[in-house]
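User: For a benchmark we're assembling, each entry needs the component sequences followed by a predicted structure for the full assembly. Here are entry 17's components. Please fill in the structure.
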Amino acid sequence: MTDDELQDRLRRLAARPDADWDAMAAAVRDGYDREVRNRDSARRRGSRRRRWGASIGGGMLAAAAALALWLHGHHGARVVVAPEPVETFHVFEDLEPGEMLEELSPAEIDRVAKAFNKGA
Amino acid sequence: MRSRVLRSVTATAHKPMAHDDSEPDDQALVARFQSGDRAAFDLLVRRYQRPIYWLALRYVGNDADAKDVAQRALVQAFVKVGQLRDAASFRSWVYRMAANLSLNVVRDRKPSAELADDMATALTREPLVEEEAQRRLRAAVAKLPPQQRLVVELRIYEELPFAEVAEVAECSEDSAKVNFHHALKRLRLLMNEENDK
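Assistant: Structure for entry 17:
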């Protein structure tokens, strides 16, 4: 069999049946629209995720900055507290005497006791 | 007489898909599609759905799979058209998608699967002896290595020039010619083997 004969035979194998071309074209159009919609929604999901990520990241940065400032305020700078005059004493109008003592720190109780003894 | 009639029929049937001169070429249509013209999309689909479907049918052998492959190939071609470097190569681009998808379908199929009836009934109605010879040839084509088969498909059935065959098969033009030559040689060998059985 020559090359030409073989090619001729091959050509005769070519099946070219008809199909519903309108339906196929419509299916291609639908398939394309669906793909584009999926791609767009995936893109939107991506940008939403990025927005969330950015806001969470921003919040964490802000919290870290606030913490840094707070630490700096408490440990970096020494706070000078002016000593209260020894003679000053507190008046607790709404508290019972026992509660008064509970509310005071040992140093304050000391001061109050000194002032009381002085007066006495 | 009969064979002469058949030959003349097939000769006209295998003319390449010529489109009207008044119709814009692929390059212009792709550019119009990319700028949002849906009419250009429809024209391209109409232009290529037939050859793509027929190419797929010869590979996968049944109407349902061939339709599926043709639709997916066209959709992919349009979705990824932005990656196409030269809009004039749209035809090669679509053929390549269809050939790859068809090969995937054939590869995923069980080895025992034979061509379905859709393909057999779609073939020319010829006398029994001739029909048997054509059946053997069809079986021989199916046994060709993928690259050789693709070259035969595109050269014989789509009547593409070797330069374009090479573009679809992603090889050089010389390599496409060599593959074609080897494919014919192998087909003859396979046909003779069948005859000897």
